[in-house]
Design goal:
With 199 residues, the chain is α+β, with helices and mostly antiparallel strands. It has 3 helices and 12 strands. The longest helix has 25 residues. The chain is globular and about 45 Å long.
Length: 199
Amino acid sequence: MKHILIGILLSTMLGTAQAGTLVINNGSFINFSGYNGQPKTVTGAQNFGLWGYLSATSAGTFSATYLGNESGYINNYSLGLGNTLLESNSLGTTISKSVGSGTVGFSFADNKGSTFSNGQQQLNILGFAIMPGQTNAYGTFAYILGFNDSYKGDADYDDFVVGVNFITAPIPEPETWAMLLVGLGLVGFTARRRIGNTA
């Protein structure tokens, strides 16, 4: 029964029921143990997820919320250009950026010089697990991402944990398009009249 439930959850995570337009690419199932400390206090116990990477199928806003850490190293999560979550941030701190379609640019890093970016292939302990979305004290999240830093003593994906969301960029309403076309038509008509009057 447990395997059936995990299968249903994984098919949902892989895009059968997508979280907005944020999808998991190259997902492969992983089990892990030892997820504890502050992340467990916020997100509950976790013991499975996916290796893979996140991509957006359209333009929109990608956000990440700090949910805790449990590690001997000092880790962080970055959306680039100084847009970074640190262990010194308060839980619930959120950063965001506008993204286009394709692989979402973000990375995790530790203070030992190791960095793992979204889109990299995970070959060893260093990397992150994509866990099912949830609602907790800091919001409702499409996915939970758990980083495992370069420390070789464990692989528990709780060294820096964030909840992520994606909001699709608004598409203009049909009325907006109609008004735009009417406006362009008027501009064209006026320009044509002026050309006719000067001839």
